Automatic annotation (TrEMBL):
Keywords: Signal
Protein name: Lipocalin-like domain-containing protein
Signal peptide region: 1-22
Length: 396
């Protein structure tokens, strides 16, 4: 009887284990297993690609069993999930059928049986490539969450007060100008051709993802191909993907980038596109009454004399108010996409209206917000979220 009981117990245990394993979808992570496990968040755009290849909204999670989920965190929906096997820098995917969100640009054909190439420039950076489109992801962990609000988490923005720079100081409008845009953990390079059909329009060249820094030496992960019309100081960058160290030195009104003995300076005291046929020019020195939060706010576009860039000032009262106080912010206008990006100026706004003002709190939350716009004659239409504002412009 005792032997029969032990035999029955053993068979039951094996059946339970077999049932548990039978429902589990698992893969193999190979030699990189421990470093691959975790949640990875998308950074910027695909390497060497413009913002039509954005991945800021993506996360890629891998557990120790080799199951993965590619997720659209903005919509809280799954793009792709299943299991993967890692070998020789490649993921072989076995995916489930159900998906509720679109795959990122260039990855439309990704699915079961597909192969993703992967590279880890550092232990907390993961580059995934499919069909020649490469997205960079940064590993999420408790320490990164704790330091995300710390200034050390944004080394590029700490380097310089402004986040948009130009290689022309305004003295020569006939030559090609390069625009450098700085973000928390990457930077993008554009060119502005004064002879282009649309004057002042910036053309994307490539991007640089921050890996590490020491003093003025910044190491980036980047991508270069022969068709890119890069400035001369970057012509010696290796083709394809590379880790490259660039010296970056910032002064009050300029920042100089150097690579392999060549350098180029960028300036923040000019704005390009502010020409007689541009929307920036048409908006400069115009004013309007903007009604929101149940109040009229006299508002105006003009150049900030300290930065020589286009600013929007919104006051706490009507045009005839006695000594109105205001909030201020720099505006970047993209005529091709019909968007105005608002950059809240905390110092200037606090000095004028104070941080306790409701107006200050409203526009502080709008920092780096993109507003859709149309401009026809003296009629400016702004769209923010689901609200549309129709504004009549006058001379300021």
């Amino acid at each position: 009887m005792k032997k029969n009981f032990l035999l029955l117990f053993t068979l039951l245990l094996l059946a339970l284990v077999g049932t548990g394993c039978g429902n589990k979808v698992s893969g193999s992570l190979g030699k990189d297993g421990a470093e691959l496990v975790g949640t990875w968040n998308g950074v910027g755009n695909a390497l060497g690609r413009d913002d039509s290849y954005s991945c800021d909204y993506l996360s890629f999670s891998i557990d120790k069993e080799g199951t993965f989920t590619l997720k659209d965190i903005a919509q809280n929906k799954t793009c792709l999930s299943g299991s993967l096997s890692a070998k020789s820098g490649k993921f072989s995917l076995d995916t489930r059928e159900e998906t509720t969100a679109e795959l990122p640009s260039g990855w439309d054909g990704l699915g079961s049986g597909s192969t993703l190439s992967y590279d880890m420039p550092t232990k907390n950076k993961l580059v995934l490539t499919y069909d020649n489109v490469s997205y960079l992801f940064e590993k999420q962990n408790d320490s990164s969450k704790q330091t995300s609000k710390n200034s050390s988490a944004s080394p590029l923005l700490n380097l310089a007060e402004n986040d948009v720079w130009y290689s022309n100081d305004g003295s020569n409008e006939d030559k090609t100008t390069y625009e450098l845009s700085l973000y928390d953990n990457y930077m993008e390079l554009y060119s502005i051709d004064p002879k282009a059909a649309t004057e002042g329009e910036a053309t994307f060249l490539t991007n640089f993802f921050y890996l590490s820094s020491r003093d003025n030496e910044f190491t980036f992960y980047t991508y270069k191909e022969a068709s890119m019309k890069l400035p001369d100081f970057l012509k010696d960058l290796p083709d394809g993907f590379s880790k490259s160290t660039i010296t970056m030195k910032a002064e009050d009104d300029s920042i100089t980038l150097s690579y392999n003995g060549k350098s180029l300076s960028f300036y923040n005291n000019v704005i390009y596109g502010l020409k007689s046929d541009s929307d920036s020019y048409r908006l400069c020195d115009t004013c309007f009454n903007w009604k929101f939060d149940s109040s009229d706010h006299f508002s105006y576009f003009t150049m900030n004399p300290d930065t020589n860039t286009l600013y929007l000032y919104v006051t706490d009262g009507a045009e005839d108010a006695d000594e109105p106080k205001y909030v201020a912010g720099e505006v970047h206008i993209n005529e091709k996409k019909h968007t105005i990006t608002y950059h809240f100026d905390k110092d200037l706004s606090e000095e004028s209206i104070g941080t306790d003002s409701n107006l200050y709190k409203i526009f502080e939350k709008m920092d780096k917000t993109k507003l859709s716009y149309t401009l026809k004659d003296k009629q400016l239409t702004l769209k923010l979220d689901k609200t549309t504002y129709k504004l009549t412009l006058d001379e300021y």
